[in-house]
Input
Amino acid sequence: MTQVLATLVLPLVLLGGIALAAVLDRAVPALVAGRSLKASFVGPITVASSWAVAQTGGTEHPDKVNWILAPILYFTLAAIGLSVVPFAPGVVAADLDSGIVLWGACESLTVVAVFLHGWSANSPLPLIGAYRYVAIGLPAMLLSMFVLIAAALPAQSLAVTDIVEAQRSVWNIVRQPAGFVLFLMLGLSLSLRGPFDYADPYDLVGGTTAEISGTARLTWWLARLAMLVSVSAMTATVFLGGYLGPVLPGFVWLVLKTSLVLVVLVCAGEVFARLPPDRMMNLIWLALLPLSFLMLVAVGVELLLWG
Amino acid sequence: MAIALLRRLAGAAPVPVFAAIGTGMRAAADDLFLDRRLTRANSIRHARILLVAGPVREADQDDIHRLHDQMLHPRATLWWKANAGPDFAEPTTWDEDDPVAALEAIHRALIDGTRDSEPDTLPNEPPNPWRGKGDYGQGGEGMMGGTPYGRPMAMTDDDLRDGLALDAYTAPFGPFLPMLPPGLKLSVTLQGDVIQTAELLRPPFPQAKSADGTVHALRALARFLPILGLDAHAVRCLDAARFLSAGTPIELTKIRQLLRWSGALAAIPPGIGVIEGADVRIRVERWLAALDESQPGTFEDSATTSPLKSARLVDLLRGREWSEAILIANSFDTETMIALAPVEAEDAEADDRDIEDENRMDHEGHGAGHPPEAHAHGAPGA
Output
């Protein structure tokens, strides 16, 4: 019964999150640019309508099937990823013993979805965006695996519900603050955002989106926002205690924490500069990956000695 | 009912405009997009209106045509202080300073169907007939290379960086690619995203330079920052430049602070685009120094200090990864860029024409006719 409830709530959470993210995507840049927030609420609706009525074009000999499937796959991965997040005690759409592994699979397949999107256009700049994303996305996913295992260690379980329950004494953000920051970086990478937007950047005139328009652009935009919501909910669950909190119902706590992470991710996406890909590759492989591994070791040692 | 509502909402959206900028109109075009009623489309695929701002060269008309034909329906073109191409029947022109109202009117008319979408200006056919060769008649050797139907195919070649033989791909980029100076057209051979060779096809258009060093620095930053993903910072810089140009004093501390926090300087790789001992990072530092009111007179642009006789843009780009190359190309002002991309004597021009002819044969399909493979990249035109 609770599983059915969670399955019904999931699309609502996704939809509400997408709406919030769409507004924030206009409000935060307006704040940084020192402009009024007036158009932040209506803007997403009018722009989405504009895309909806525009013609969807095509290039010469694109990989049509994959071009259509890529945003659908991306969106679906966001929804599946969200399905392992418990909305309240016992209320989870996919209550798996290995929920964190399913999330990891969604992360990895995101690389495939984004790559296909760039590949299918049969055009050089989208293809460069696709390859770049794989180059940066792969080590970013590797890094997240270390972070997630470190988060799962105290719970001694790969079930997301157990990871939340293990945070009743102390949230994982306290246990591994650097892991939290690394996971936020992964969130930026999964949702193709700001400093980690290597697939659709300006220097490639929009990268994998350079050749799309109309509804194709609309679906890609929705999929990106959906992934942002999903990764925000996961971050809130794994590091901020998920539905745990006093007075208010668990679901409200989760929504509040997810919204907070979403705001942080949107702000980070606007405020920080993006490194050229080569420089970012060096940073991830030489600094961030070893750091995430050291953190995993540190959590292991802590649990062995005091756990 | 639902469609009518969608159309009404779409009509209220900012007008997606792709700007093909000509001589002397770069600053005006940049300022134009500060208006919230417009949104700048970086790819022609995202635009509903092609805005040709300022005069362009005769040779660029072909690129305008290809850009135009890659735009999806319903579409229109506005010639703003520009010479309309002969193949555009009944072109809409605008010679006043502010074209926003005209753009809005065209957009509304396109959405509600009172204005017809413009037809293609080029024939929908390959740039040249089938000239296949190779085992399967597909092009070069094996399954790769060559230019079947004028479409370039990637071909294995040695790589500059690590010697790995990857697929080299040659294509023209510009003259209206938004992240390159307007008018600059290059023929670039890429392996992955590393530039193996770059050849100058056409130099950038001359642009007016602000006499005020601070305004100049703000405008330069506004063009540079989006490459680092700092679009909102760029808008802030451009807003400030506009206020200062109008004689309204404005506080620049906040901009400097935001840029410091963004890590923009640290993001720029050291040692790229070195000219006269200054690399891209140093040039950006100079712009930032120009925003510091407490240190008047510190601004110094490389163009004003050196004739740059020996340096060439194409040499600076060789071996650079695409992002780095774009950073380099945007770290100079237009005068310096023109000095770095010299139109040489007749011999060079003849070579230039040869290269163009070759590329036309290779790539005209890019727009020859249809959006098709119209690589958004140089969306050839782009």
